[in-house]
Amino acid sequence: VWDLAIVNNELICGHNSGTFKVLGDQISWISSVSGGWTIKQLHSNPNYFIQGTYVGLSLYQNGTSGLKFDGKVLGFTEPSRFIEQDNKGDIWVAHAYKGLYKLTLNSTFSKVTSVKYFDEQNGLPGNYNVNIFNLENRIVFSSDKGFYTYDELSNKFTLYDVLNKSLGSFSTSNKIISAGNKKYWFIDHGKTSLVNFSEPGKIEIDSNQFSLLDGRMVQYYENISQIGNSIYLISVDDGFVIYNNLLGQSPGKRKLPAVLIRRIEDITDKYFTISETGNHNEETEIPNSRNSIRISFALPYYRQAKLKFQYYLEGYSKDWSDWSVATQKDFTNLSSGTYKFKVRAKLNDSSI
């Protein structure tokens, strides 16, 4: 899966094998074009969407039955992982190692009528790892040398000095993700910051509180999704992190989220997963011959703090365990019977 996007209240999945609609626990295939990397609504006509794929661009239209595939955009077949539409209506495409393309489409968006290619001769620092983002309705181009902008008259790219100076070390960010309300996530090769552009002429950068995420996201495939007014879901290499930007009170007064039971595994003689939905009220029945299990748990809380866990297996334990930073517990050779696993967490030796 390359991309999950909400398009007019439909969940659209861009996949190696094509593009799908997801409805509940059902999926339907809407395009067989391989590699649905990203899908963007066209500013010039909001009923249409352009998708970047392994083999160029695909066109979608919003109809009475939802999003439908209108076909491949003819005249361009390069891999198109990053795409943006500028204010003139042209489509910019970033190639992984060949530089940039600017495409002009016909009136029905079905065919490319003009292709302009840009590389070092046009002022880019190189052809590799140049990406495209929309920052406050302005197209910017990221690189290992900093952010660039394009000047139509000179047909040249120049460093965006004002932005680069304000961003400091994050001027070489390889990804920008909108956080809403004039805020953006800047990700610089494993380091993360939240940048606020709400005050004209001033940029506020918050990176210290995200230091625990350093190196935890899959580089070049980072993803942060807004799932509430102030809540974000951050993908990391071993799961997800939840960030709530309204949590401002002291840790001692803060109500912690519930501990999640992430996984129950059978470790009797070989490893396999019994359940990955441990936080429910239904009983999980395990044959007594498979009586050695491992329970993994986590607290969806990322702040830099001292986090410890304590567990109790009702029907087995005599008392709660000692507090520990361990996030899993093995129980071996359990007798037949009914058990209930309980786990709790504390933060900085205070909040439980």
List keywords for this structure.
352 residues; mainly beta; four-stranded antiparallel beta sheet
Descriptive report:
This protein has 352 residues and is mainly beta. Among the domains are: 1-118, TolB, C-terminal domain (Neuraminidase), CATH 2.120.10; 252-347, Immunoglobulins (Immunoglobulin-like, Sandwich), CATH 2.60.40.10. The chain is built from 1 helix and 29 strands. It has one helix at residues 161-167, and strands at residues 3-7, 10-15, 18-23, 26-31, 38-41, 48-53, 56-63, 66-72, 82-85, 91-95, 99-105, 112-118, 131-135, 138-142, 148-151, 156-159, 175-180, 183-188, 191-196, 204-206, 224-226, 231-236, 239-244, 260-266, 272-275, 293-298, 307-314, 328-331, 340-347. The strands form 9 sheets. The protein has a 4-stranded antiparallel β-sheet with strand order 1-2-3-4, with no helix packed on it. A 4-stranded antiparallel β-sheet has the order 5-6-7-8, with no helix packed on it. Strands 9-10-11-12 form a 4-stranded antiparallel β-sheet, with no helix packed on it. A hairpin with a 2-residue loop joins strand 13 and strand 14. The longest helix is centred in the middle third of the chain and has 7 residues, at 161-167. The protein is globular, with a radius of gyration of 25 Å. The relative contact order is 0.06.
